[in-house]
Specification:
The chain is an alpha+beta fold and 227 residues long. The protein has helices at 16-23, 56-63, 126-141, 148-163; strands at 3-13, 33-39, 42-48, 68-75, 91-95, 98-108, 166-173, 178-181, 187-188, 209-210, 216-220, 223-224. Strand 7 (166-173) and strand 8 form a beta hairpin. The longest helix is centred in the middle third of the chain and has 16 residues, at 126-141. The model has no long low-confidence stretch (mean pLDDT 87).
């Protein structure tokens, strides 16, 4: 399966140290990588079908002076869909005049939701189908842009419906908040000044908090959001 990295901060932050450590895991997860940076309402998206350890695009990203409050990254080990650019996470869609970014780790079996709106997959992954369905159902549930609490309540109902089809570790971000859903293994950490020592194996020198399987957590301004 794939691996995920998300960051939500209260000030534009350089994630290159974390991304470099994350990319070291791409020897096994070598079927592509992607990273999305929000800048206000805009998104910079970099994806490649090569391993994050070997890709010249990944090398460019490591050298690029990007600072962002919301970042989603993914290294792929393909389970459904061939190794191709259209199947490389993160995926991006527009809803209510905002970009939404989605990445998934897992495998959804016999997952073929009815898609009848404006959201259709370009590739052939279960992940992109799930993202399109979530966007479709969010659009059906709200006539205009809801707040984070209202969105979180809706997603708390929608995400388990996808997870019922298999492993669904996923991250969804709209530049205002980061939603993370756990099926098997997800962890988070809150980093605050003064920062403690960290090493490229990202979990070695810090105390990361494990999600409970089936749990959704929301992060706003660099901290867990109390729903």
């Amino acid at each position: 399966m794939c691996q995920l990295l998300g960051m939500n901060a209260n000030t534009p932050t350089d994630v290159m140290f974390s991304f470099t450590g994350f990319a070291t895991r791409a020897e096994e997860h070598k079927d592509g990588f992607g990273i999305a940076f929000f800048e206000d309402k805009g998104v910079r998206l970099f994806v490649d079908t090569s391993s994050a350890r070997e890709s010249p695009v990944a090398e460019m990203v490591r050298r690029y002076p990007i600072r962002s409050e919301n970042i989603v990254a993914h290294i792929r080990k393909a389970t459904q869909g061939r190794v191709a650019l259209e199947n490389t996470h993160p995926f991006v869609r527009e809803l209510w005049g905002r970009y939404w970014v989605f990445a998934h780790n897992g495998d959804l079996k016999n997952y073929a939701p009815r898609l009848h709106g404006a959201f259709r997959p370009v590739g052939t992954t279960d992940s992109e189908r799930a993202f399109c369905w979530l966007m479709q159902e969010l659009a059906k549930s709200h006539a205009s842009v809801p707040g984070v609490a209202e969105l979180s309540a809706t997603l708390a109902e929608l995400l388990p419906q996808v997870a019922a089809h298999g492993v669904f570790n996923a991250m969804l971000d709209n530049g205002q908040a980061l939603w993370a859903h756990c099926s098997t293994q997800l962890h988070h950490i809150v980093r605050q000044h003064p920062f403690k020592r960290a090493s490229l194996p990202l979990t070695k020198d810090e105390q990361w908090q494990a999600f409970v399987p089936g749990e959704m957590r929301v992060f706003v301004d660099g901290a867990p959001f109390d729903r």
